[in-house]
Design goal:
Layout lengths: L11 H15 L4 E6 L5 H7 L18 E7 L2 E10 L5 H14 L3 E6 L5 H8 L7 E3 L4 E3 L1 E6 L4 E2 L9
Parallel strand pairs: 3-4, 4-7
Antiparallel strand pairs: 1-2, 2-3, 5-6, 7-8
């Protein structure tokens, strides 16, 4: 039974594989691309896949998403983000992903830790402040999803996910 990874980057490939499957199942008629994107700024990946013009607000910003998903439906494109942590989650981690979500308005956004929700457990579960997960363009409010990454199954521990999928 795995206790934790030594390096955060060890989480990226299993999370990328999980995201690929999750997005393929959820967006059945779409083309799905997922990449471990931690090593370069987001806009460079968007440029590589020919969609940076749809996200001009990312150009020149130091946004490094750990795992990036691209959902292509005809001429429209949506993004999916995973921020991975090998430590207990905290408000700073949530704030980082929230800022990325406010800038890019992804279809999906996950904050996942291989050890647990940490102080976010109190905020999200005990204090019921799931409103802190809200983002969107104003017309449609979406929620970031926060949970524990199960190293044994290489998937999200569904019992810990806030809000539930």
């Amino acid at each position: 039974m795995a206790s934790n990874v030594k390096y955060e980057y060890e989480l990226y490939e299993p999370m990328r594989k999980w995201l690929q499957t999750y997005l393929e199942e959820k967006y059945k008629t779409s083309k799905i691309i997922t990449v471990d994107s931690h090593s370069r700024d987001l806009y460079l990946y968007l440029e590589e896949f020919g969609i940076v013009d749809r996200y001009p607000q990312t150009v020149g910003l130091d946004i490094q998403i750990d795992v990036l998903g691209i959902i292509c439906r005809g001429k429209s494109t949506s993004l999916a983000f995973i921020e991975a942590k090998k430590t207990q989650l905290n408000l700073h981690d949530l704030g980082q992903l929230w800022a990325y979500c406010k800038l890019c308005d992804p279809a999906e956004a996950f904050l996942l830790s291989s050890v647990g929700l940490g102080s976010l457990n109190k905020i999200l579960n005990n204090l019921s402040r799931t409103d802190l997960l809200d983002f969107g363009d104003g017309k449609k409010i979406k929620k970031m999803q926060v949970g524990k990454w199960d190293l044994n199954t290489n998937s999200i521990d569904s019992k810990t996910l806030v809000p539930k999928i």
